[in-house]
Amino acid sequence: MFLKKIKSLGNSLLFRLTIPYTLTFTLLAIISFSVFYYRIYSVTMERMDEELLDDTEYYSEYLAKSGLAGLKKKLFEEADSEDPDEEFYRVMDFKGNVLAASDMSAWGSADKIGVTGELQGNEINHIFQIITLPEDDDKARIISVVIGPGIILQIGESLEEEVGYRHYRSRH
Question: How far apart are CA 71 and CA 68, in angstroms?
């Protein structure tokens, strides 16, 4: 008797109307969460890019005031106050010769040769890149910018926030 009621429930109008509404709600919820996730990610990346550009402007002004030796000293002070796995600084010329660099052991071979060619040959004065770190497959954002005559500054910053959003999304 109970099985007959369950079987007849599948043919009822209530059941046939519930399925489309449930599917529609689920689909809209997935779309809404995806839009919110994308928006949070893009705002995070925009803020990081603005922060990196502000940092490079500061170091460009510092180079103009204090010269290359003063800039190196300032960058080493900054690097000492940061975790080398989270951030790096590198100053180089257009030939790719490194003039100064913080601890780059966690950053693998962050591109320097390709960047110098792009910055030297184009009218742009900065390039953003996203790289995958070799040890833990996390990603990092790098800005390469011309801060003085023949001098390029690279600043790399870990994308832990982005990775946190991605891991959160994949677990739920």
Answer: 5
